[in-house]
Amino acid sequence: MTLVNQKILNVKPITIQLYFIIVFLLFVYGIYNITGFVFVQEADKYLTLSEEVFKGDFNDFFAIFRFYMSYIIYLKYIKQLFSNSQIVFFHLGLLYVSSYLIFKIVLSEFGDRRTAYLAQALFLFCYPIHFWSLSLY
Fold first, then answer.
1. How far apart are CA 52 and CA 58, in angstroms?
2. Could you tell me the pTM of the whole model?
3. Which of 60, 68, 75, 115 is the Cys-Cys partner for 50 at CB 3.0 to 4.6 Å?
4. What are phi and psi of 36, to 5 degrees?
């Protein structure tokens, strides 16, 4: 085992997770500087539909958007607590928790921290996922 690998394995896991959080936030901030928050077109459709469902109108919900029911219901309840831009931050928090769970699953399956960190990093720095999270669709 090389000296670099020994140093990586000797760093406390919480320190590595803090580095991941900082770099993840910088990565998302970079995407935000390029695209900003997107609440138009597709995002507007889902936000409007979640408001209709909240009011009790389920016509389009079951007829057209039944395959997106889980996301629309998620938006329906989360919109009661947060504004649109706050939903994005809540969603980013959920994405980080998901990346940590990916880390734990890979660690339990393979038993290798480097593989688990790689899997978490691949998820955290996947551009399409985070572009989607800034767009709410």
1. 7
2. 0.73
3. 75
4. 70, -175
